[in-house]
């Protein structure tokens, strides 16, 4: 903004301060400095640029120095007075800007918390979302990345991911943030490329962290649902020790279904796997054996390598499971029951948490 467009109000009392301070060689008084700071705050709130504001101060100082009345004034004293006045003005300007940034950050944080937990009126939330580039009338999907460390807004990892997405998808209506130590990306539900790109960037930024992507859901409430699906996918992956770095909630729907009736699942786990607690070393090594056996498609050699066992040792364990439970992992009729029970044990943290 040109200096001529800046109202003279922001120079109120400036020439008088220069005249008095430079004539006597004194520094500006506390009241004079505070008056400059107050004007700087007002100018920042009004949206004027600091560069233009400093320019009009220097222009006014030159005009005063050229006045015949000021000819006897020491140039050094005048320069010192200008420096103090402009510095105080800039301090007030920056203080107002910092306050505005903090208020904006607080508003953004509050919006994100409300968005991901659905704690606000959905209509009002949709209005607030437009301020942050989201149109909640359409569907959105949420991706969540979790690393070894907890991340907050402004940390190196979320900044790097946000900058990468902004550079590539500046006009796509994407929100990148953090929540409970995790990186979060909210993107339009029909733009899988955005979420895939976020997953790659977040995996790298979190030093190999895991990323889960919820299903697209419509409306403001859909963001909450997609976010919770992503969190559940991360939880399932940890409990079941799933290996993929990127998980999609749509590919894991069987696990919430299995865990929906907790009591029925607990009964299945105890009735099927309970006898394994009689084994030397407890049930955990044998459950780990079953898990590896099923994960490798019931190929004994591959399961043995995964467990660092010989095929003979693995076969012995499977026979032991058969004798204790009465179910044979090699028989298709028994395999489904055992595999479902193993999944249930992982989901319910059994036998670490006995029922």
- According to DSSP, the number of beta strands is 6
Number of domains: 3
Write down the overall geometry: elongated
Rg value: 33 Å
How much of the polypeptide forms β-strand, as a percent range? Answer: 5-15%
Distance between the termini: 70 Å
**Mean pLDDT value:** 88
- Element-level helix/strand string: HHHHHEHEEHEEHEHHHHHH
CATH superfamily of the largest domain: Reverse transcriptase/Diguanylate cyclase domain
Which architecture of the largest domain would the CATH scheme give at its second level?
2-Layer Sandwich
CATH fold node name of the largest domain: Alpha-Beta Plaits
Give a brief description.
With 355 residues, the protein is α+β, with helices and mostly antiparallel strands. The chain is built from 14 helices and 6 strands. 61% of the residues lie in helices and 8% in strands.
Describe this protein's structure:
The protein has 355 residues and is of the alpha+beta class. It folds into three domains: 3-101; 128-252, Alpha-Beta Plaits; 260-347, PucR C-terminal helix-turn-helix domain (Arc Repressor Mutant, subunit A, Orthogonal Bundle), CATH 1.10.10. The chain contains 14 helices and six strands. The chain has helices at 14-24, 30-46, 50-65, 75-117, 122-131, 156-168, 192-205, 219-240, 254-260, 262-273, 284-295, 300-306, 311-325, 332-347; strands at 139-146, 175-179, 182-188, 210-213, 217-218, 246-248. Strands 1, 2, 3, 4, 5 and 6 form a six-stranded mixed sheet that branches. The radius of gyration is 33 Å and the shape is elongated. The termini are far apart.
